[in-house]
Amino acid sequence: MTEQPPQPGGKREEERRPRDADFWAKRVERLEVSDVPTGAINLNVQGRHEVGALQGFGPLWQKTYWVPLTGVGVTPTEVVRVWKEHFPEFHPPQNRFYPSLAGVQPGEVLLINASMRGMPVYTGVRVIYADEESFTVMTAEGLPEAGWNTFSAYTDDDGHTVAQVQSLARANDPIYEIGFRIVGSTEQERIWTHVLKSLAAHFGVNEPVRLEKACVDPKVQWSQAKNVWYNASIRSVFYTMAVPLRRIGVLIRRRNS
Amino acid sequence: MPQAQVRMNVRKVGEKAAIIDIEGELTAFAEGVLMDAYNQASEGGAGVFILNFEGLEYMNSSGIGLLVTLLIRINREKQKLLTYGLSDHYRNIFQITRLDDAISIYNTEEDAVQAASVL
Questions:
Q1: pTM
Q2: Which CATH architecture group holds A20-236?
Q3: Cβ <8 Å between B61 and A136
Q4: I want to staple B94 with a disulfide (CB 3.0 to 4.6 A). Which of A1, A207, A245, B100 is the partner?
Q5: For residues B4 and B30, is the Cβ–Cβ distance under 8 A?
Q6: Which A-chain residues 144-163 have CB contacts (< 8 A) with chain B?
Q7: Could you report the per-residue pLDDT of B9-18, keeping only the tens digit for each?
C-alpha cells in the first residue's frame, strides 16, 4: 500500500503525547526471543514476522467468549492483573504458554508449545498492546491462525465484571483452514472456554462461558496460500521426528571432543 | 455501557470521495459512530473514504479491530479506504498491526484527496 514518509519536524508529537503511548509495543521487523523459559521449545518464532487478520488465508472470524464474574466484588483491573500474572496456568495442559521473564507486557513474546490432536505445534505470539483492563497478542507466521486475540475485562450494564476473550483471525494457510473446518475450530473454542472457566474459578465463580461468532469476511485469500511454507505444525512434526538424530549428533560430538 | 468518546464528521469531497474526520478515541465503543459515519458517506454516493486521524487522541487494539472490519466492508463493496493525519505514534501502530499493508497512508488532506481523485 502507498505510504508517504512522515513529514519532518514532529512538532505535533512533542506537543501531545498520546495517552495510549505506553500501552503499545514497539515496532519490530522480525520477532526475537531474548530468553527462553525453562522447559519451553523455541521453534518457529525467532526471525518470523508477525501476521495480522489481513495476512491470513481463510475466512475472517470474530469470536467473542465471555463469562460474567457474578457474586464477587472484583474490578476489571484486578481481573486483568491476575490474568496477566497467571496466564499460563489458565490454559489446558495441551496448550502451554511460556511468557518471558518480563511477563505479559507490550513487546514481549510468549512461546506456545501446544498439541493439536496429538500433533505438536511449537510457535508463539507477541503482546502488541497491554493496559490495565486488556491485553492483545498478535500471531507469528506459521501459527494456525493469523490475527489478534484480546483478553479483557469490563463492567456490564448490570454492574457485573465480565471477563472476555475476543479473537479476530483467519486460518493462516490452506492446511490449517481444512483443519479448522474438520475439527480445529471446535478444539479452539474448547481452549478459550477452558481459559475463561479457569479464570472464573480462580475468583470462585462457576458460570457458563458464552460464545458469539461472526464471519466478518467469508472470502479466502488465495494470495496467502504461500503461508503454508511457514506452517508451524508441519515444522514442529519434523523437529520432533528429528529428536533421535539430534541426540545421536550430540553423542558423536561428545565422543569426538 | 460507557459512552463512545469520539465524534465523527463526514465531508463530501468531489463527486466520489468523502472525508470522515475522527475526533477523540477509537475503541470498541466507537463502532456505532464509525459505522454511522460510513453509512452516511456511502449513502451520499462516496466510493472512496478518507479517514482523517488528525484529531485522534487515543486508540487501543479494539480500535484496530474496528478499522479492519470497516476495511473488509469497504472492500466487499468494491470501494476504497485511504487515511491521512496519522501521527508518528499511530503510523507506528499501523505498521505493527500491518494495517499499512492494506490501507494507504498520506501526509496531508490534499495528498489523500488527490489520490482519491484518480481511483
A1: 0.92
A2: 2-Layer Sandwich (3.30)
A3: yes
A4: B100
A5: yes
A6: 148, 150, 156-157
A7: 999 998 899 9
